[in-house]
TrEMBL record:
The chain crosses the membrane at residues 26-48, 68-86, 98-120, 126-145, 166-182, 188-206. GO terms for biological process: retrograde vesicle-mediated transport, Golgi to endoplasmic reticulum. PANTHER family: PLACENTAL PROTEIN 6, RHOMBOID-LIKE PROTEIN 19. It is found in: Membrane. It comes from Vanilla planifolia (Vanilla). It comes from the Eukaryota. One of its GO terms (cellular component) is Golgi apparatus. This is Rhomboid-like protein 19. InterPro entries: Rhomboid-like_sf (IPR035952), TMEM115/Pdh1/Rbl19 (IPR013861). It is a multi-pass membrane protein. Residues 258-282 are annotated as: Disordered. It holds the Pfam family DUF1751. Keywords: Membrane, Transmembrane, Transmembrane helix.
Length: 314
């Protein structure tokens, strides 16, 4: 950190990651190394539906066990950079709780889906194929970015700019398209899709916001239909309303009526979409400040390097 300017130094751009994310990265790397050194460890760490009943712990360990080098590299890089944006806004405790909860929910849904597909198709591959990886949680972290800074423009492969709110939807569409042409990729598809949906479910209904103490994000901008193009929303909204009634519908009804009457018509802090909008604005400002600081730090670093080269030549 450059104390004179209050901006991060050029080295902190690459090493200014949070302690929690670095610790989780070590766990992911350790899981990959163990599987490479002891291939039989896959049977105990990965999710194998036929063995989940005696080895129930793999519902937790599967998400942190990468089987391929590209998989562990993408997971670690994604965790470090996305975590650096989200964790300061959520807090370390909530960030860790989100990862653990989403990882467990993904494993439960993957297990149920594999069992159902086996009974439908009678193919034993659904029961004995080891499934593992952190990519489902990474997809869920993109949902967190959608919630906190939906209108922030990000560069996609340095070719085009898209709004952050479309990142989960783009990932889902690309994953479905790739799995059609590359059947071996189909094993990753359920985890990615469950990661997106379970993350939205957790953030929509169950995440406790420390600034208000209210659970969930009831704003229209974070509704289920907001993941789809606008022309599909009239069709999706009635379907999504069923899930609203199923998941804590009474709670939201209680917030909207008793709270209003108890406070003389004023809603509880954070119980309306205005508070959610303010939260997203704070997230967008935090991201803009961080990106601006890092760009300035990079420019200063390049300037110092050029001056140093010129001095050596002289």
């Amino acid at each position: 950190m450059d104390h004179s300017s209050g901006l991060p130094s050029s080295s902190s751009i690459f090493f200014g990651f949070t302690r929690l994310c670095k610790g989780l990265s070590v766990v992911l790397l350790g899981g990959y190394v163990i599987i490479q050194l002891f291939p039989s460890a896959v049977s105990y760490l990965a999710l194998i539906p036929a063995r989940t009943i005696p080895f129930a712990w793999n519902l937790l360990t599967a998400g942190y066990s990468e089987q391929t080098l590209p998989g562990v590299a993408i997971s670690i890089i994604g965790l470090l950079f996305i975590g650096r944006l989200i964790e300061p806004l959520w807090g370390s405790r909530e960030f860790f709780k989100f990862i653990v909860a989403v990882n467990f929910l993904i494993s439960i849904c993957t297990f149920i889906t594999a069992i159902a597909l086996y009974y439908i198709t009678t193919q034993e591959s659904y029961l004995y194929t080891p499934v593992s990886g952190f990519h489902g949680v990474l997809a869920g972290l993109l949902v967190g970015i959608k919630q906190l800074m939906p209108d922030q423009e990000l560069s996609l492969l340095f070719l085009m700019k898209i709004r952050a709110k479309w990142l989960p939807s783009i990932l889902a569409m690309i994953s479905i398209a790739v799995s059609v042409f590359l059947p071996e990729f189909a094993t990753y598809l359920p985890i990615l899709l469950f990661g997106i949906y379970m993350s939205w479910l957790y953030l929509r209904y169950f995440q406790k916001r420390p600034e208000t103490g209210i659970k969930g994000d009831p704003s229209d901008e974070f509704s289920f239909s907001s993941f789809f193009p606008e022309f599909l929303r009239p069709v999706l909204d009635p379907i999504a309303s069923l899930f609203d009634r199923m998941f804590c519908g009474r709670k939201h009804h209680a917030l909207s009526e008793p709270a209003d009457s108890a406070l003389g018509g004023d809603p509880l802090p954070g119980s309306d979409p205005i508070e959610a909008s303010r939260r997203r604005e704070r997230g967008a400002r935090a991201l803009e400040q961080r990106l601006a600081a890092e760009k300035l730090a990079m420019a200063d670093g390049m300037k110092e390097a050029l001056q140093g080269d010129a001095a050596e030549r002289v």
